[in-house]
Amino acid sequence: MDAQIATIFDEAESRYLKSEELNILSQYVSSLPQRLETYRLLRDKELEIMQQVADQLQLAMPQETTANLERCLKHALLMLRYCAMSMLLNDESFVKERLLGWLSQTVQAYNTQAIDSTLYRLLNQRLSQVFNPGQLGLLNPPLKLAQTTLLQPNLK
Amino acid sequence: MISVADLLTNNRVPSNYFAPDAYVRGDLEMGLLENRRGDRLLALPETLIQGIYAGLDKETGQATRLVLFNCGRWWGKNFYARFSEELTDYYNTALADMSMVEFLQCLQQCWIAHGWGKIDMDQTYQQRGFLVIKIWNSPFANHAPKGTLPVCFLEAGILSTFFSQLTGKDLQCVQTTCESAGADCNRFVLGLTKRLESVEAMVQNHDTHEAIMQALCA
Questions:
Q1: Alpha helices by DSSP H, chain A
Q2: Could you give the CA distance from residue B120 to residue B133 in angstroms, rounded to a whole number?
Q3: ipTM
Q4: Max CA pair span of chain A
């Protein structure tokens, strides 16, 4: 859950919420219909979007092995699913804690940043065709966080 | 052409089985800790770890290391069975069919999720028949009596059976550096028992890890 909102709930016994705090809550609540709509759209179009990206990726990187491309596509599917959930919860730490610590190690171990970088470009292009600007505004922050983290050069 | 639908198994893409917030579950009222499959987990308070060292030392003295090592071997045997069963279930792949990268990642995440510190494998000497395991922030080193010699016999035992089962060879494990003696991390050398015979004396002699590895590979 959104960290700010989680902190608000801790105050239940000590006082009633101030109007700024209630504003945070109502902002989140009023954004929920759009979050749900974006989530549903992504859920229903996941395969279609990713299949197109896969086709384009194969054309763009014919020199890469299918195994490598498939691995990157699997990681992108994971990334998309975690980002969708994070968008719904309005909680970027969900992506950070559950996915990135682990996945960035895997990406570095397999050294697939070159493929990933092309893949993200194609994916982002495709997403901007499917989603409207409002929906992209919700989906992009966690997606950007994930992509930037995963493309970071080896820190070891 | 790649079919994305075929990349999904039962519509899922397995990720990090050992993500701590998904892996560790508990029921406060029942006083139970469980993992995500419902298998019991055991919390070891610091006092207990300290007490184990102190109690064993009082009761068995010199034999402490052997007792701990054998307990570790027993633990390692069960740990390997559970680790391999859980991963096979979750990833739908036998442990033996996993790539080295995936296996190592699972082991590292597993170590973290259980609060045993951070583990890594150093494969520099693999061609010579030795595997070096490094562990940082080990609670077993942290709560051990401070001295000048390695004390993580429990972990040495765990690692020796774990990797013996994994490789199908009877492997011995000797610790060469220890956080409790001021080292940056705990280093364990795994290899065939016969080839590690001389290591124990070198450790007792306070030889450095590098010197020991050099002597082993000479």
A1: 3-9, 19-60, 66-89, 92-95, 101-110, 113-130, 133-151
A2: 6
A3: 0.84
A4: 63
> Which whole-number Å values give the CA distances from B9 to A74, B6, B12, B86, B155, in the listed order?
11, 7, 5, 17, 36
Of the candidates B203, B123, B131, B181, the residue with the CA atom closest to the CA atom of residue B160: B131
Rounded to 10 deg, the angle between the B153-167 and B64-91 helix axes is 40
- Summarize pLDDT for B9-47 with one digit per residue, the tens: 888 899 999 998 899 998 888 889 999 999 999 999 999
Cα–Cα distance for residue pair B130/B132, rounded to 1 Å? 7
CA-based nearest residue to A94, from A72, A113, A74, A78: A78
Inspect the interface and report whether the beta carbons of B15 and A99 lie closer than 8 Å. Answer: yes
DSSP B47-70: HHHHHHHHHHHHHHGGGHHHHHHH
Residue among A50, A74, A106 whose CB faces B105 most closely: A106
A-B contacts at Cβ under 8 angstroms = 56
Q: How far apart are CA A99 and CA A143, in angstroms?
A: 12
Which three-class secondary structure string do you get for B147-197?
CCCCCCHHHHHHHHHHHHHHHCCCEEEEEEECHHHCCCCEEEEEEEHHHHC
Structure tokens at B65: 């290391």
Do the Cβ atoms of B65 and B152 come closer than 8 Å? no
CB-side exposure of A11: number of CA atoms within 13 Å? 11
B37 alpha-carbon distance from chain centroid: 21
Q: How far is the C-alpha of B160 from the C-alpha of A115, rounded, in Å?
A: 38
pLDDT for A155: 54
Better-predicted residue by pLDDT, B200 or A154: B200
Q: Does B96 touch chain A (CB under 8 A)?
A: no
Cβ separation B16–A97 shorter than 8 A: no
**Whole-number mean pLDDT of chain B?**
93
Cα separation, A53 vs A58, whole angstroms: 9
